[in-house]
Amino acid sequence: MSKLRTPSIWNSNTVRFYSEKKSNEANESEIDAEAEAEQNLSEDAKRIQELESKLLAKDKEAADLKDRLIRSIADFRNLQEVTKRDVQKAKDFALQKFAKDLLESVDNFGHALGAVKTETVEQHEEVATLYDGVKMTKDVFEKTLTRHGLEKIDPLGEVFDPNMHEATFELVQPDKEPGTVFFVQQHGYTLNNRVLRPAKVGVVKEQE
């Protein structure tokens, strides 16, 4: 009697079934792994994109802060310059007003010396001593003013300059060049190279 081979057929099918099942499971695992890898890559790309966005935002914020800082520094320096100029103007104005008041004293010294005749000085020793004392005081006073930027304008013989001189009268002078100063009625003064008081002068007039 022949033996039945059904079990061996069954075993072969079973093996093939299990083999296919294992293969399917492997494929599914590979698919799951690929899906997980793709998901991880997608999440990483999303994180990178978020980080790049944050970095761009920080860069923009830093640029804005830098621009504001530069503007603040520029404004501060401008304020310093304006304040410095204002302080200097205030000092110059105060000094200018004070210097103008001092010019009256200088003029008075000149008037006092001019009022004394040469003969009187030569004939009277006491007057000569007083005259020398007043002149010495005037010289010291003028030197002190010069050290502080105040200088005399003495334009005798110079060409008339409306920026430095004030013409009080004109006369024809045949031996002098028209337009030149032939008489100084009152000396002018400059303060730090700026005209504090123009010199009052007589100017040579052209012959008609």
TrEMBL record:
Its main location: mitochondrion. Residues 21-41 are annotated as: Disordered. GO terms for biological process: protein import into mitochondrial matrix; protein refolding. It holds the Pfam family GrpE. Gene3D superfamilies: 3.90.20.20, Head domain of nucleotide exchange factor GrpE. InterPro entries: GrpE, GrpE_CC, GrpE_head. Keywords: Chaperone, Mitochondrion, Transit peptide. Residues 27-37 have a biased composition (Acidic residues). It comes from the Eukaryota. One of its GO terms (molecular function) is protein homodimerization activity. One of its GO terms (cellular component) is PAM complex, Tim23 associated import motor. It is found in: Mitochondrion matrix. Belongs to the GrpE family. Essential component of the PAM complex, a complex required for the translocation of transit peptide-containing proteins from the inner membrane into the mitochondrial matrix in an ATP-dependent manner. PANTHER family: GRPE PROTEIN, GRPE PROTEIN HOMOLOG, MITOCHONDRIAL. This is GrpE protein homolog. It comes from Wickerhamomyces anomalus (strain ATCC 58044 / CBS 1984 / NCYC 433 / NRRL Y-366-8) (Yeast).
